[in-house]
Amino acid sequence: MPDHPLETHHRWADLPAEALTPFLSRKMMHGDRLMLAHIDMKKGAVVPTHRHENEQFSYILSGALRFSVGDEGREVIVRAGEVLYLPSNLPHGAVALEDSLSLDVFSPPRQDWIDGTDAYLRTQK
Q1: What is the pTM of this model?
Q2: Residues facing 77 on adjacent strands
Q3: pLDDT score at 103
Q4: Which residues contact 10 (CB under 8 A, 6 or more apart)?
Q5: Distance between CA atoms of 41 and 89, rounded to whole angstroms?
Q6: Which of 27, 48, 55, 71 is the most exposed place for a label (fewest CB within 10 A)?
Q7: How many percent of the chain have pLDDT more than 70?
Q8: What per-residue confidence (pLDDT) applies to 35?
């Protein structure tokens, strides 16, 4: 079986945290077609309503988030051990109901996160 020289091995603890606001930080890694991100939100942190072409899974590792989903802003509370799937271009936002950590998976990778043009996240609580 041939070696695959492009594989990488990461430890979340070794990745630098990017502080977007005093209440929100993230660690992320990506390949060509997939992105993983640890999103650390303090209680009361807000992710404003937005949409993106990327499909998204949000797996809540600890805490709880209240998502606002769709044009009508339907509320969905997602707690530790639960996963929310957000299809491409569905408007959504979130508020941390308590200190929370999520593992978010995106396909394709979020280019705005990679190149730092995600201003909507950097100006909120």
Answers
A1: 0.91
A2: 66
A3: 98
A4: 29
A5: 23
A6: 71
A7: 94
A8: 97
Which residue do the tokens 């799937």 mark?
85
User: Which top CATH class is 32-122?
Assistant: mainly beta
pLDDT tens per residue, range 87-105:
999 999 999 999 999 999 9
Q: Distance from CA of residue 22 to its chain's centroid?
A: 16
Mean pLDDT, range 100-114, rounded to an integer? 97
The residue type at 102: S
pLDDT at 6: 74
Distance CA 49, CA 15 (A): 27
- If phi over 0 gives left and psi between -120 and 50 gives alpha, with beta otherwise, what is residue 44? left
User: What 3 state SS string does the chain have?
Assistant: CCCCCCCCCCCHHHCCCEEEECCEEEEEEECCCCEEEEEEECCCCEEEEECCCCEEEEEEEECEEEEEECCCCEEEEEECCCEEEECCCCCEEEEECCCEEEEEEEECCCHHHHHCCCHHHHCCC
Provide the CB-side half-sphere exposure for 70 (13 A, CA).
5
Residue type, position 123, single letter: T
Which residue's structure tokens are 């209240």? 66
